[in-house]
Each structure stands twice: as structure tokens, then as C-alpha cells.
Amino acid sequence: MRRASWFNITSLTLGFAFLYLPMVLLVFYSFNSSKLVTVWAGFSTKWYGELIRNEAFLDAAVVTLKVAVISSTLATILGTMAAYVLVRGGKFMGRTLFSGMVYAPLVMPEVITGLSLLLLFIGIGLDRGVLTIVLAHTTFSMCYVSVVVSSRLVTFDRSLEEAALDLGCSPFDAFRLVTLPIIAPAVISGWLLAFTLSLDDLVIASFTTGPSSTTLPIKIWSAVRLGVSPEINALSTIMIGVVTVGVIAASLISKHRTVKAQHDLQAAERGTS
Amino acid sequence: MSQTNFSPWDDPNGKPLIRFDNVTKKFGEFVAIDDLTLDIYEREFFALLGPSGCGKTTMMRMLAGFEDPTSGKMELAGKNIAGIPPNKRAVNMMFQSYALFPHLTVWDNIAFGLRRGGASKQQIEKRVEEMLTLTRMTKFARRKPHQISGGQRQRVALARSLAKAPKLLLLDEPLGALDKKLRQDTQFELMDIQESTGTTFVIVTHDQEEAMTVASRVAVMDEGRIIQVATPDRIYEAPNSVYVADFIGDVNIIEGTVKPAGEDLYYIDWNPNQAPLLAASERPFSDGQTAHLAIRPEKITISAEQPVEAKNTAKGSVLDIAYLGNLSTYYVQLDGGQVVKAQTANTRRLSRRSITWEDKVWISWSATAGVLLDR
Amino acid sequence: MNIRRFILIAVPYAWLLALFFIPFFIVFKISLSDLALAIPPYSPTVKDGIFNMLSAFDFENFTFLASDDLYWKAYLSSLKIALISTIFAVIVGYPMAYGMARAPDEWRPTLMMLVILPFWTSFLIRVYAWVGILSNEGLLNQLLLWLGLIDAPLTIMNTTTAVYIGIVYTYLPFMILPIYAALDRLDESLIEAAEDLGCSRTKAFWLVTVPLSRNGIIAGCFLVFIPALGEFVIPSLLGGSGTLMIGKVLFEEFFNNRDWPVASAVAVVLLLILIVPITLFQRNQQRQAEADT
Q1: Which helix (H) or strand (E) holds B333?
Q2: Which are the contacts of C161, defined by CB distance < 8 A and separation ≥ 6?
Q3: Which domains does chain C have, with CATH numbers?
Q4: Is C189 exposed, middle or buried (0-12, 13-18, 19+ CB in 10 A)?
Q5: What value of ipTM does the predicted structure carry?
Q6: Which of A256, B19, B292, C211 is the most buried (most CB within 10 A)?
């Protein structure tokens, strides 16, 4: 049995304080009634009201969500295909280039990805706007999706697909009826990852956006360059809140599933001895 | 064991269900199957036995359609099956890992293959119920694979692969994941199901006891070749090589030089300190040829005094005794250094037995107890 | 080859070729083109400008980069900042990963979630959170003044120190997770064996635990170092005008000076610098994968 030593407890406490205190303070000061964010002047929710009435932010939020939903869906489809090709595709011409292109965007600095895409869009004369951001986001987030999905596919028991073929499935049916339902959790987390990456992206969006389509991070960026503002604190609090609720709910669901599976297994072993 | 009169392989007019004709399979440079020819007959329970890497799994995967032979011909019921994809073959497979679809219930797992076949809803229902009854899984039809035990999963996998009534069922180490006790029970269950459905079974296993128990014929493989194909008793009593004798069960191998000693009888000079051994062999040997005498430990008698009537005797001392409960194995070091294993059934209680460590003993066996082998 | 397999391979392949490979090639080519041909964006002939740039060929931009010490300094200072931040991240991350690996089993999923949660939170917001803490009248200075530890506010905001803090803070989970994975796999009986053979606790830690978690530390270092090198948001927001980092220089070169060929050349050199740690990182991952099997 492991026991927590004082050293370990201290390092964990300090470490997590470092990770979480800035965000806690941010949330705390979003309820500050003073315009001066670092001076506490009493509880108030007025900045949330201001935020809701700020149409520029609302418009940006709509654009951001639209881009995120479309690009993460496209990225999930393309990324899952790419993962399947990498893990199960066998040999084909240009395989090395393909796997290089799948993994390179993960380590490519955002400024370079953004710059290169902008030059392409200008080169082919594509007007910059929602479409170009979607294309850019799909490209880099499909690589993340494909990493998530392929790590699941690698551990996937290949005999399940073989069993499906053996029982009369065509290769496509085997994927549709057996592989996809089993790897679905990985595909869903890939989608969520792509979605948050898109929501979060500032640099690539700055390069590929046009004047008519400002995303939320770009909006936040131009606001925070001028310093701390309570409105941004309120917006951050909402975003942090949504993520926290989502992640906690997801982990509770998965914990519940694991516990249930263990319970079922024990019941099964008992019932047959 | 197997039905007494069932031996289609001895019938010169018998038509095999499966025919391997000079089949070779290479993976790059590696030769997995080396020019192999083999017939398997309808209703057989055929076992492919060998150490891992001997090619037995490759043979099975070629039958299922997951691999194509590099050269040679493979026939199923008289038709060449090379190039036909697995989903178009009347062959089903039970996977070593069972490969039960984790997202489907037991019922849906069994129905999976039937649904691909385009059977009507009533037909599917009827067939699934039949399979559930056959494998005694009716109670668990609505459960998911992770909600049943290992032995139950094995039965579901069997039901699923039998549901389409294949001409041939392939079983890849079907009992490997079960513990020993359950494995023994399941072996008999498998044999019953094989007999009642009349399906041809080909089983791959590395467990010689399992192969001997279930199979009508056993093929012992090594390095992509079949060393011997025969009924379990022939494999055990009349192995055709030292490899087979050594692979199946426990055996003493004594190497020596042959000298003819009458019709089908030979002397073997094996140790200057010991008298030559006498062995009967239908296989002819020439004078001076090197040969190996294989004798099973249970065919060797151990005694404190020199036996008078035995054809072969040797003197030695007890080096070690392995007590196995029902049996005891004595490791006897002969004068001259060689260690021979002799086995006796423990029909008496321990305290009454007379031989113990360091005792001088005699071992003996008859001329027909061993098999004389040239390789 | 059947048609389905062809589509399966061709669609993602074509996408990546069109939107990753070709743009990258354009950057490479423009970096070799003449400054004079560069035309500012939004001009009607911008499209022709790109093609002009694509057809030209000289090394002028690279010799320009080499001669102007702004770029040299920016690359060197990026390397320095990334390196120092990585070292700090090990110092902060290792004890946390160690504490997690030694925590009771029932705590671990929660601790794990606490490390991963910041991943899902907006990067920009997490960096922004430090602005209110580090500024001259910020919360940290208020606290230190109140405690009487300092008499006048410290200047942290808009210095390299703020950038270090920002990088360590945002990339800390990347450091913790691989080290935790390595420590978690470590068989505790090894430490008991070391103690049994006469090591003290501390000695067992340095002689057994640290060497066996080496691959995790190396992986974590690369995962912090590589993105930190090309970082733009953190130095722009926390580092102020005094902090030189190459990602920031590239951004400014492009948007403020509109000098595309030089921006492209900056990008190409940055990539060349990145190839070294990326290759080393992949080798480390491969070695680890081989050790696992």
C-alpha cells in the first residue's frame, strides 16, 4: 500500500496551486465590481451583463463556434481515414511522405503553419474568411485526430476484423459494423480535441482570417493587449466553467463505466464457477 | 475416443474435403510452409500440433482465406480456393482470442454471420436459439461478452462460428485461455459438438495432450513441414522420428549401432560397459547403421534384483525420484553415465515402496517395448 | 488495388498535400526570392506577386538574416528562453509527477484529471491570467508588499522572467505526463531491493528512480522545448517589447513590416533549428518503444 509522504503532499499542493491559482483568481476577479481588476470592491455580476450586451463578442463567438464545429467534423473524418491508412493501409506509394505529413503539423510552430497557409490562399486567390479558417483548422487538427485514433487502432485486436470477414462481411462492412463502433470513444475524443484546438487557436486564425470574420481568440487578443479587463475575465470564467463541467462529466461517465464493467465481470465469474 | 470404424484416410477411394497439394507459403525470405501435401477428410477432427512458429497457424489462416499460398494448390471439396476472400468461403474460424465483438450481445454475436448471409428473420432466430441450446448459453443471450466468464466466452465463440453451418470449422488454440480443469471438460464438450453437428474440425494446438484427446488424426509439424500424420495411438506408440517421439510425451532416447539379430530383430551396441540391447523393428536397418531406440518411461520396469526373463537389462543407481501422485518417475544413472527415466504406477502407499535414493537397481524392458528410429 | 482503398488513401493524402505540403513549399520558395518583388498584401496584383516570388531565386534573404544581428539575437534568445524554461519545468514537474506516482491509488484518477484539465482550457486565457498577477500593481506585488517582504513593487511583467513563468505554466502538463507515465511503470520492488542492498532512501531515488524515469524526463523536455522555441503568444503578452523571440519576430515581420520573403526566410531557419530536437525526440520515443516490447 502506498502512503502519501509529507514531501509528496507538499509538492503536489504547491504544484497544483501553481497550475490553478491563476485561473481561480481570474474567476474570482470576474465578480469584482471595480473596473480596476486588482482591487477588490465588492461582489457584482455586472461584467457578465456587459459581456452579453457586447455584440462584437457575440458575433465573434458565433463565428468561432461555426468554424469549430465544421472544422472538427471534417478533421475527424479525414483524421480517422488517415489513421486507418497509417495503421492498416499496408504499403503504398509515398507512404513515408504521408506519415511525415500527418505528424509534422504536430511539431510545426503555429506561426509557420499560419504563414504558409496564408501565402497559399493569396496565391490561389481565395478570399479570406470563415472558409479559409475552416480549411486551416481542419488541416492541423486532423493530425491530432489521427494520432488519437491511430493509437487506439494500434491496440485494436485485429482478429475482431478478421472474425467479421470470416463471418461474411466485406472489408467495408467489417469497418462499419465492428471497427468503428469499437473505436468510437477514440473518434469522439479526437473530435473534442479538434473542437477545442479550433476554439483556442489565435495564431493560425490571425493569419487566415479576413476582415469580416473575427474569431473569439482574435477578439480577446486585441482586448488583452491593452491590459486586464473585467469583461475578459468574465468571458474567461464562462469558458473555464464550460470546460470544467464538460471534463468532469466525461470523467465521471468513464469512471462509472469502468466500475460497472468490473462489477459485471465479477458477477459473471461468480455466476459460473 | 474416436469412433472405431471411422478411418476414411485408409480408404483408397475416399475423397478428401481439404487437399493441400505441394503448398508453400513464404513471408519475404521466411518459409512458413514448405512444400506441404496433406488430405483431410469429411467429419474428421484433425489436429495440427507443433511448437510455436512451426507453421500450423499459417496453415489455418490459409484455409480461412487470410493468407494465400505462395505456390501450390489448396482444394476445398474439390474446388481450388486460392484467391477466394474469407467472406466468400464456407469455412469459419474460432479465434484464439475468441474475437467476440465487445459492442454486441451474445445473441447478436451469434447472429452476426447469419445476418450477412441474408437469411430471413425467422431463420436467424431459429438458428441462434439452436446454437444457444447446443452450447448451453440460452440464459446469457442478452449479456455482453465482458459480462460472461472465460469458459462461456469460449462457448459463444464456438456457437458463432458454427452458426453458419460451415463445411469446415477452424479452431485456433480454442482452449488456450482456459485453466486446466475447465480445459479438460471443454475438450469432451467439443468432441460431442463435433460429432453431433458432423462438421469437419481442424484444430491448431501446441498442447499434445489436447491433440491426443480430441483428434481423430494428428499432424505433428516442425519448421513448415509435417513430420508425421497418424491417429493419436500410432503417434504415441509408433512415432516415425526422434522429433515426434520426443515431442509427444516423455521418452528415453538411446543412440547406438545396429547389428541384425534375426527377422525384424536387431541388436544395438550403445555402451561398452553394458550388454547390447535387443529391439524389434519392422523398419529395416543395415548392419552398422546408427539408430535411436526410443522407449517410453512407463515401459521400463525397475527392480532391486536382476530380472531373469527380460530381454534388455541394465544396472544403475537411483539419482532422483519425482513423485507425481499417481506415478513416480525414477531417474536411474546407468553404469557408463547415461540417465534413463523409468515410471511406475503408485498402486501402493508410499511407505511400502522399497526403492529409494542411491539404491542400486536394475531396469529392464522387452524387445517390443521401444521403437527403433533412423532419425 | 480496389477503388475503396484508393479513395481511403487518396482523400487525406490529397488534403495534406494541398494544405500542408504545397504551402510549406511556397514558404520555402519565397524565402529564396527577391525582396524588391515582394508586394504588400491587399494590392490587386498580389496574386502575380506570389508567382513572381516563386520564380525568382536568390539567397539574399538569408544573407540579410545573417548580417542583421536582430535575427541572430532573436534565435539565440529563443533557444536560451526555451532551454531555461525547460529546466524550470523539470524542476517543477518532476516532484509533481513523483508525488502523483506515489499517491494512493484512489487519488490518482483525480490527480490525473487535474493535470489534464488545463489542456482543455483556452491557452490564451491561461496566459492572460498571469497579466493580472505579475503586473506592477498586480496581485503578486500586492501580496509581497502586504507581507512586508519588499518595499517597492517588483518589475516582473514585460521581462524575460514573466516569459519563463508563462512557458513553465502553460507547458507543465506536457512535462508531468511522460514523467508520470515512466514513474508509474516503475516496479516499486526495485526501490525496496536497492534499500535492501544498503541504499538510503535518497540514494535509492538517485540511483534507481531517476535513471529509470530518464526516458520520461527526456520526452517531457522535448515536449516543452519544441513548442516553446516557436512560441508567439507568451512573449508577446508577458514579455513586452524587450523580449526577443523568433516567433514574435516572424509575426511582426509579416504583419507590421509586410516583408514576406524575410518572414519566410525566418520561418525556414526556425524549421532548420527545430529539426535537431525533433529528430532527437523521435529517436528517444523509438528507443522507448523498443525497450517496451
Answers
A1: strand B327-334
A2: none
A3: 68-258 (1.10.3720.10)
A4: exposed
A5: 0.87
A6: B292
Per-residue pLDDT of B33-56, as tens digits, reads: 999 999 999 999 999 999 988 899
Which amino acid, one-letter code, is at B69? Answer: P
Instruction: Tell how far CA B330 is from the center of its chain.
Output: 26
Asked if residue A251 is part of any domain, the answer here is no
Contact B197, B162 (CB under 8 A): yes
pLDDT tens per residue across span B340-360: 999 988 877 655 567 888 888
Q: What is the 3-state secondary structure (H, E, C) of B153-211?
A: HHHHHHHHHHCCCCCEEEEECCCCCCCHHHHHHHHHHHHHHHHHHCCEEEEEECCHHHH
- A7 grid coordinates: 514531501
Helices (H) and strands (E) in chain C, counts: 16, 0
Out of B91, B97, B160, the one facing A159 most closely (by C-beta) is B97
Nearest residue on chain A to B100, alpha-carbon basis: A160
Q: Report the C-alpha gap between C86 and C178 in whole angstroms.
A: 14
Q: Is C286 on the interface with A (CB under 8 A)?
A: no
* A142, A79 Cβ separation under 8 angstroms: yes
Residue A243 belongs to a domain: no
Which of B56, B84, B47, B52 shows the shortest CA–CA distance to B224? B56
Find the helix or strand (DSSP H, E) in which B302 lies: strand B301-303
Contact assignment for A157 to B85 by CB distance below 8 Å = no
Which residue range is the domain that position A175 belongs to? 46-231
Q: How close is the nearest chain B Cα to the Cα of A244, in Å?
A: 29
Is C274–A225 a contact, with Cβ atoms under 8 angstroms apart?
no
State yes or no: pLDDT of B1 exceeds 60. no
Query: The domain that contains A193 carries what CATH number?
Result: 1.10.3720.10
Considering only CA atoms, which of A2, A227, A203, A224 is closest in space to residue A117? Answer: A203
Chain A partners within 8 Å of B152 (Cβ) = 268, 272
Q: Percent of chain B at pLDDT above 70?
A: 97
Mutate to test the interface with C, among A26, A119, A198 (most CBs of C within 10 A): A119
B3: pLDDT strictly greater than 60: no
User: Measuring CA to CA, which residue among C241, B147, C156, B278 is closest to residue A270?
Assistant: B147
User: A270 vs chain C: nearest CA distance in angstroms?
Assistant: 25
Q: Any chain A CB within 8 A of the CB of B108?
A: no
Pairing of strands B290-295, B252-260: antiparallel
Residues in A closer than 8 angstroms to B97, CB to CB, are: 157, 159
C129 contacts A26? CB cut-off 8 A = yes
Domains and CATH numbers, chain B: 8-245 (3.40.50.300), 250-373 (2.40.50.100)
Domains contained in chain A, number: 1
Q: The dihedral of CA B309, B312, B315, B319: what is its sign?
A: negative
Among the partner residues A9, A117, A232, nearest to C23 by beta-carbon distance: A117
The string of pLDDT tens digits covering residues C209-249 is 889 899 899 999 999 999 999 899 999 999 888 888 988 88
Residue A39, min C-alpha distance to chain C (Å): 9
Quote the DSSP letter at residue B9.
G
Interface of A with B in 147-186 (CB under 8 A): 157, 159-160, 162-170, 173, 177-178, 181-182
